[in-house]
Amino acid sequence: MFAELNGILNWSLDKFEKGQCVLLSESKTDGSFLIHHFLSFFLKAQCKVCFLGLVQSFSHYSTVGINMLQAREKGQLVFFEGLRNSLDMLLPESDASDAEPQPLSFLRWPSTDLRNLFDFVNSSLSQSENDMSRWASPVLLIDDLSVLLSLGVNPTAVLDFIHYCRMAVCSKQQGNMVTLVHNEDDLGDEDCDLVLHALTHQSSLILQVHGLNTGYCRDVHGQVLIKHCLDHDATLTHSLTHPLINKYTISHISYYLKFRNLIG
Amino acid sequence: MLSEVITGSEGGEGFVLIKDCVQCGGRGLLKSFIKAALLRNETVHVFEFEISQEEMYSGLTDGTSSSLVFHNGYTDPLNWISNEKPFDFSIQSIKSQIDQSKDKESEAKNVILVLDSLSWLLHHIPITDVCQLLQEPKRKESTVKRIIALMHSELHDQGIVGSVSHMANTVVTLSPIPEFTTVNWEVDPYAIGETVQRKKSGKVNREEECYTVQKDFSLIIHHDLHNRKQAIPKPDNTAQVDPAANLTFNLRLSEEERHAKERLSLPFTFSEKKKHSILQPRPGGGKIVYEPDAQDDFDEEDPDDDLDV
After folding, report:
1. I need a labelling partner for B200 at 20 to 30 A (CA). Which of A53, A246, B9, B44 fits?
2. Is residue A186 part of a domain?
3. Cβ contacts from A onto B, under 8 A
4. For strand B43-48 and strand B170-175, is the pairing parallel, antiparallel, or unpaired?
């Protein structure tokens, strides 16, 4: 968790905006450090977290930052390990698994939508009275959405899934949702662009991670642009942009505020 | 022109399309259309697919206005949660939903149909069906007087955006304010709206305006858009550096120096005196004597005959 980023967003563990749909986009660099940031932030803020980890294994995520094992045992964290589940789905050990709907059923029946995956999210985050007293608002983290497109899911189906997650988590339960998407503007990937643009319209906070225009640098890995979209709100002011430079070493990340006139 | 379209004083009928982009969303403008219609005491049917009822109502009404009818396509449009009848996107269903709620009212009034957003509909039903719905205000017996739709133009192919735009009587295309704007605005403009209006007579009006939507969804139009365009090159002129300044040598001529320069004859100028001196045979100069051989076929009339090979 990076205190500097929290300071810029004006978030703290006991006070942060609820009902937000946060979009993280990465282009020409790795943006997963933001996923780790939000994961450890929401776990420390005592939120009930559902984490769809489609890119890495559980042990990878738990070694990077916070002790996830403890959170999972306490029932605070529901972790969905996409790598293992997809293998189980494609190479089932017995036929018994067909009886109940699996979250990744679209892998075997490509024409189906992502309804089962949404049901998994919804049931993980719907809180019992006991949960409500223990945990703060629910949070859904997705790392990352582009994997679903790579697995052959129709972009409209991905957007339907996001629509339902947003409705259930952000609107109904006043929780937060954080989604990572690749930004492949240069590559001309139409499906990826469609999902990214649609999510940009729906998100209230956007963090864009870019590689440096000047190319590779050993110390500075890229810049983060932060946009607050106030379009949903009645106060229609222009979006704010904070250019940052992030420098990360193996164990920690430090941010350097960069003034706008230094960029161009 | 944008505010006239919103108030309905100029070409209120037909299909109004708002095309927004990633940099500037058009929902604020859509809400100001709804607000203006409510103030005129017209019945507005909102088919909402992207935001919740609370978000749509915030700032518009105190929730009691009967002339704003909300059709919820947001909560469960695909019937994933409840096992009730799913939201029906078909045109017949949308029309019958309007008719049903109209029956409840005592007087038959013309209604305004708001689609937020058209992008959602285009992703879920065929474009032919969407176009049929958009034709509705043109039918004489229809109660739908006006359709106002928001469309996110990046989410569709150019072809689809083009066909929908062709059906519209008025198209408002939003684009972001360029960053290098130099004018000091009193209120920062939100976006540039380009309004294209096709009249029944065939006349096409086009105007670009900067606008801001205020908290009460009234619109501020910034009239100095054209000043802004002219104002851009100004800083370039003042910033231009004089290349002759601060030189270590003199580039300018005094009057005396100019006369001296003009008097000087340069080596390549061919004056009369020079010509004369060259053409006059000088003492001790050489002379060419030519004696033809016996075999030479010398033509007196054409001495250069042998050059034509």
Report:
1. B44
2. yes
3. 66
4. unpaired
